[in-house]
Design a protein that fits this description.
By secondary structure, the chain is an alpha/beta fold. 43% of the residues lie in helices and 7% in strands. The protein has 12 helices and 4 strands; from the N terminus they run E-H-H-E-H-H-E-H-H-H-H-H-E-H-H-H. It has a 4-stranded parallel beta sheet with strand order 2-1-3-4. The radius of gyration is 18 Å and the shape is globular. The termini are far apart.
Length: 253
Amino acid sequence: MVRKPLDFFLIGAQKSGTTALFAKLTAHPGIVALPQKELHVFDRPDPDPARFDRAFAGADPALLWGEATPAYLYWPGAVEALARYNPGARILVILRDPAERALSHWKMQRARGIEPLSFEAAISAVGRARVRDGGDREKRLYSYVERGFYADQIARLLRHFPRDQIAFCRTEDLLRDEAGLLARLFGFLGVEAGLRVETEKMIRPNDNAAVQVEAGAALAGLTALYGQDIRRTGALTGMALEAWLAGPRQASG
């Protein structure tokens, strides 16, 4: 049986509120809600879109089908594979202040017992060498700094999808104006935006709470490192990102 391709993808960035955003989007009655958020089809050496057929078996084809795997934005080859699968797909991208994102990513790995280094060491040249010199595992686990250089990732996305098929937003949009953001994204996806969608105000990671660290100086250093990239990301996406240049700050989750 020929299945329809998925209609939309939420592709990143990791630790930017993708879980919250996808939960709110899939609470809409016009969108299929999958029990599993991340299918990881395109961030593998041999992408297997047949996994979508299995995941959406029995789903109503009249509804929108969507998937969220935040690694797709960052992972080499993922956007290209996604474009080959469905060049007409709608793409959603939510971005977080990259310094705060890096700390949240580190806290997650620390809480899981995966990261032995302090935050300062993990984002240092020595810590980053694990990503540069390692394999796929290191690239996936320890890319705290690398994932925050959004501009090249966005530029790659724009080479494979028309701008009118991409919706960009910021984590702070979800926190400060959830209703407005959802209305915009529902309109972008082509489902009725006036429906009231009841979900939690914000879904925060529950694996970071036990990790407490004072990282003001390290965050200030990252903000300086990301400065040029933040400006370029703002130009590429059309989003106002000047607040990300203010640093330093302390991420909560």
